[in-house]
Amino acid sequence: MNTTERGSFSGKLGYILTVAGSAVGLGNIWRFPYLAAKYGGGIFLLVYIILAVTFGYTLVLAETALGRKTGKSAIAAFGDLNKKSKGMGFINAIIPIFIVPYYCVIGGWVLKYFSVYMTGGAMKAAEDTYFTGYVSNVSEPIVWTVVFIAASLLFVFLGVKGIEKASKFAMPILAVLSLIIAIYSVTRPGSLEGLKFYLIPNFNNFSFMTIVAALGQMFYSLSIAMGILFAYGSYMNKKIDMESSIKQIEIFDIGIAFIAGLMIIPAVFSFSGGDPAALNAGPGLMFVTLPKVFASMKLGGVIGGTFFVLVFFAALTSAISLMEASIAFFMDGFKLSRKASCAIMACITLVIAVPCSLGFGLWDGVTLLGMGILDFFDFMTNSILMPIAALLTCIFIAKVVGVKTIVEEVKCSGEFKREKLFTITITYLAPAFLLIILVSSILSAMGFIKM
Ligand code: TRP
């Protein structure tokens, strides 16, 4: 995107759809349900929603306003407002570089499942050991990951816009299909227990990790703390009502995650009787559970195939945005050409993605801070780096540019009903909360405290 295109979101709807399109991705469909299943069901859902509408909302607004005010991307925006703060932009910009690789591994799983459904493998995919058998292969998951990486890079390199148009069709269909699958799931025998587990908060299931995981998910799902919202903000017309657009994007994002949870969690109870091991399945949960749901449906093969191809679109558009953001880091930060930046990003992605994939098979004994390789990158980015970046953004706003600057930016295009809440959150609540969570998760990851 070049500067002449700035301000290219002329309408509110266009803005909302584009930002929501990039926010909705594997985070909502793959990541949210497995975290909710693992960290307490209803209590996780509750904590997540509270965090998203308070801290999440504040941070999304702050980043968007900074982007619109400066008309620049993250790296430039900080430096523009205060020369000494330039480094803060770098931290934001570096995060997507570490997300892309493992995102592509999951994208590769989605592609594989799509191919299995296309070749009539619906029954095979529903077998208990299918997923673990597949991921423990050495070469096949790597091949699919590489295909996914190549597809994303190609679009980034060629700067093809068509894919965004395709995703504008695909996303609403995905939302509707997910809703249908969710309704089917919750009406299976035995799923009522699962529905209760997912919807009714049970404080016995609460642990400190519930907050850490929900916070990380909030950053991930709303695409906070990685320069993305700065960029979108910089393209946002000064007339678009910021407060209400962001509210709608949040509703959309939370809504899709909620439906994905409904689709998967009750089905875990229906097909495995709520076995704690099944709830703790981790990153594989969607790939283990949904094929069982599809296998029990009449047109399961077709529905499964359609589902995975739509998820592929959602994942691809997110991967493209993430890659764009990573490449902007090399282009803006080091003045490299687009070609060189793409080449560097391809190498980094491969070097990290291959171990992430092998971590489920050949290298499944390898742990970093007690986590598998993919989980390690996921944890480092979402639970360590993003809270650091967000904390710095809060400090930057409160101490360097002043909350007023943001408030004025929001007000120039509409009302700011939650101005007081925003001011208190960004100045006191968010920094204090982020600091506590950050220190605790570092201490726990290093084994100093047990949570
Ligand atoms: N929010 C996306 C999802 O839910 C993932 C994501 C995080 C993302 N940061 C991003 C997508 C930046 C595009 C751009 O899957």
Describe the 3D structure.
The protein is an all-alpha fold and about 450 residues long. Helices cover about 75% and strands about 0% of the residues. The chain is built from 20 helices and no strands. The N terminus is likely disordered. The site of tryptophan has 14 residues, from helix 1, helix 2, helix 11 and helix 16.
Key structural traits:
about 450 residues, mainly alpha, 20 helices, about 0% strand, globular, binds tryptophan
* Secondary-structure content class: mainly alpha
> Strand fraction band?
under 5%
Contiguous runs where pLDDT drops below 50 for at least 5 residues: 1-5
- What is the distance, rounded to the nearest whole angstrom, between the alpha carbons of the first and last residues? 44 Å
Report the C-alpha radius of gyration, rounded: 21 Å
- Portion of residues within helices: over 70%
Determine the number of helices (DSSP H or I, runs of at least 4 residues).
20
Query: What form results from the Cα inertia axes?
Result: globular
What is the helix/strand order?
HHHHHHHHHHHHHHHHHHHH
Bound compounds, each kind once, are:
tryptophan
Provide mean pLDDT, rounded: 91
Major sheet, described briefly? none
Number of strands: 0
In short:
With 451 residues, the protein is an all-alpha fold. 77% of the residues lie in helices and 0% in strands.
List the helices and strands and how they pair.
Elements: H1 12-23, H2 26-38, H3 42-70, H4 74-81, H5 86-118, H6 122-125, H7 130-135, H8 139-158, H9 162-186, H10 191-199, H11 208-221, H12 228-234, H13 242-272, H14 276-279, H15 285-295, H16 300-334, H17 338-358, H18 373-401, H19 403-411, H20 419-445
Helix pairs in contact: 1-13, 2-11, 2-13, 3-10, 3-11, 3-12, 3-13, 3-19, 3-20, 4-5, 5-8, 5-16, 5-17, 5-18, 8-16, 8-17, 9-13, 9-16, 10-13, 11-18, 13-15, 15-16, 16-17, 17-18, 18-19, 18-20
This protein binds tryptophan.
